[in-house]
Amino acid sequence: MVIAWQEFQPIGAIATTPSAVRHLQPLCQAVGVHLWIPEALQADFPDLPVYSGSLKDHLAQIWPQYRSLLFGLATGAVVRLIAPLLKDKTTDPAILVLDEAGKFTISLCSGHRGGADRLAGLVSHMLGTTPVITGASAHLGLPGIDILGTPFGWMRGTGDWTGVSAAIAKGEPVRVIQEVGSTLWCDRLPDGHPFRFGFAESAQTEAEKARVWISFTQRQFSPESEVPKVQWHPRVLWVGVGCERGTPREVIEKAIGQVFRAYHLAEGAIAGIATLDLKADEVGLVELCGDRNFPLTTFQAHTLRQISVPNPSAVVDSEVGTPSVAEAAAMLAAGAEQLLVPKQIYRAQPEEVPVHAGKAVTVAIAQAEYEYTARLGQLYLVGTGPGNLDQMTAAAKSAIASADAIIGYSLYIDLISPLLRPGQIIEALPITQEKQRAQRAIELAQWGLTVAVISSGDCGIYGMAGLVLEALQAQGWDGKTPGVQVFPGISALQATASRVGAPLMHDFCAISLSDLLTPWEVIQRRLTAAAQADFITALYNPKSQTRTQQIAIAQSIFLQYRSPQTPVAIARSVYRQDEEIYLTTLEKMLETPIDMLTTVLIGNSNTRTLGEWMITPRGYHLGQDICQPED
Ligand code: SAH
């Protein structure tokens, strides 16, 4: 199953007519959608699960099982069916509707937090439908304010989310005060977006109609406030904890809560808990981390004792071998040189805990530069095909649509721009910086993002896939984290072949004439071997502005072994707007313009032309000799 769909699983679907079933059926096998049909359709679709009785009752029964539900029904019917079951946009499933004609996929409910808008995009790529997204933010080309920080693992804080969303929908000025966390979300905002950044100039500029705080502070918004406000909390705070053996989880939680309240800090901003390795099995700590999804990071005493802290303790040193646990662990986990909150000691009252339980907890807090995303990164290595979106696989489209970040050469990013959605991070780098591109993708994935690295054609054929995997290997990758998935694409040689007929019908090879990463002698040896062995040969990277001679040498090598009349196809920008295709011969091929956007396809000794077509027979005709080299 394509990983891109995982966050929406389990996905249920219901269709009540044969055509709706047929439209939705491709999703069952491809991505594991569970499609329910009424008993009346059982004879036509014997493999699908059947519900009996009323659809209303069936839906009520399956409602809690699915994270997303797809209906092949009229929207009116769907609205009536789901109305009694909807509770809250934080917990309701994503609801989508596919129209009877199979033309549209409508994101009906839970578009943002439930992910229905994004799922409608994925379904559309898979089924060839048009996604219908009716939310205002999508229309404005903005990420929803209530899902803005999701890729970075930020926690949604308190506030009037509906009020702020409404102001954004109206295009009213919204003040954004970001104190911590990634600013990658602002890199690609559309012109005329409503956000006004920073605090200082607010008084002078137009009156703000809403405010968004991005910080680790817990702000109390007054209900009388003139403008709606919300707060996001990037997880940048590492909480160092020391405690007596057997301290109950409630006591540790209370201690942390008290310190956070005293310093006006948001618990949503907690990245994780840090402590001494002896505490890795401390039951209260382990329980707390499990319940609240905090990572528990532990350090050895000799590592902790190297950190210079404001409040060392000789007693602690004599007990566990380091003068500081909470302070040193917080600083180490955060990679910070100072503390945000120095050691605070909390003592539970005797009546709060059982007689022999631990009672004392120390808490210290340090701030990390980068937020903890709590996500396992993914790298999608995607081949986008020769150019036109029609020539790209549905899986590759889904991968691009679902990625948090897309990295690639700017020309290829332009070619796939219709697939991009608001809020995605797009990093286009110049063509010469492939290694930097691979490095950046790995960096973002290690931080927790899902990153699509795109190459034209197939990404594993002179593309980015190898560079990314090579770089991962050099960094001691374990083969699992970040996860990697490769999405194949139609390579230039196939695209070229398709435009001239069937030239690749017999054994063939590809040779890149670029000697940037391969010594020219090696390339020359391969050209000779290919020519000698009568391989049909696709020449990639045939010529650049500075590299002009290699194609002439290649031609002369082939002329030693093949007839000057051998058919040659020269294809430039295949499946792009400025496509040019020429059929010529080996002896005349240099008369045709050739550049870096061109693929040269040299036929074998048997290849023929017929009008505009180039055809290589499937087999050799008996008695026909392969051309011998001239002495
Ligand atoms: N990964 C790509 C190849 C990248 S190397 C693939 O599988 O197709 C770049 C070379 O590919 C170009 O110099 C050119 O030779 C060829 N190429 C890529 N796209 C092309 C297109 N649309 N038309 C013709 N040649 C193309």
From TrEMBL:
Domain spans labelled CobE/GbiG C-terminal: 237-366
Domain Cobalamin biosynthesis central region: 143-234
Keywords: Cobalamin biosynthesis, Methyltransferase, S-adenosyl-L-methionine, Transferase
GO biological process, one term: cobalamin biosynthetic process
Single GO molecular function: methyltransferase activity
Pathway: Cofactor biosynthesis; adenosylcobalamin biosynthesis
Domain Cobalamin synthesis G N-terminal span(s) in chain numbering: 58-137
InterPro entries listed in its UniProt record: 4pyrrol_Mease (IPR000878), 4pyrrol_Methylase_sf (IPR035996), 4pyrrole_Mease_sub1 (IPR014777), 4pyrrole_Mease_sub2 (IPR014776), CbiG_mid (IPR021745), CbiG_N (IPR021744), Cbl_synth_CobJ/CibH_dom (IPR006363), CobE/GbiG_C (IPR002750)
Tetrapyrrole methylase domain boundaries: 379-588
PANTHER family the UniProt entry points to: COBALT-FACTOR III C(17)-METHYLTRANSFERASE-RELATED (PTHR47036)
NCBIfam families registered for this protein in UniProt: cobJ_cbiH (TIGR01466)
Name of this chain's protein: Precorrin-3B C(17)-methyltransferase
Gene source species: Desertifilum tharense IPPAS B-1220
